[in-house]
Write a structure and sequence with these properties.
By secondary structure, this protein is mainly beta. Helices cover 0% and strands 60% of the residues. The strands form 2 sheets. Strands 2, 4, 5, 6, 9, 10 and 11 form a 7-stranded mixed beta sheet that branches. The protein has a 4-stranded antiparallel beta sheet with strand order 1-3-8-7, with no helix packed on it. A hairpin with a 5-residue loop joins β5 and β6. It is elongated, with a radius of gyration of 14 Å. The termini are far apart. The mean pLDDT is 97.
Length: 120
């Protein structure tokens, strides 16, 4: 089993910044991709950004140049630095991690979600 614990959401004014964290724990042998998705009220969950085990990144066009993803492999943690936040960034943000368990089975797990609200 893999558990993901997210933190760092909150209320911020337009133009402000927030940093999200997501720590993975459990019977993990290796982690491949770590990423973030978000779901705004009344909308489907959408892809935000992903980082591979090799450090390659892929961003949604809507966040390019404003959001930065990073990971600490020693801590099995992924971060999302969000700058120049806009009201349309308001959503519940979910982290997603995939890899291999200690018994070599593949896994893909989701965090519980953290609310980000951008409003004046």
């Amino acid at each position: 089993q893999v558990q993901l614990v997210e933190s760092g959401g909150g209320l911020v004014q337009p133009g402000g910044s927030l940093r999200l964290s997501c720590a993975a724990s459990g019977s993990i042998s290796s982690i491949n991709n770590m990423g973030w998705y978000r779901q705004a009220p009344g909308k489907q969950r959408e892809f935000v950004v992903r980082i591979t085990s090799g450090g390659s990144t892929n961003y949604a066009d809507s966040v390019k140049g404003r959001f930065t993803i990073s990971r600490d492999n020693n801590k099995n943690t992924v971060y999302l630095q969000m700058n120049s936040l806009k009201p349309e960034d308001t959503a519940v943000y979910y982290c997603n991690v995939d890899g291999r368990l200690s018994d070599r089975r593949p896994f893909s797990s989701w965090g519980q979600g953290t609310q980000v609200t951008v409003s004046s």
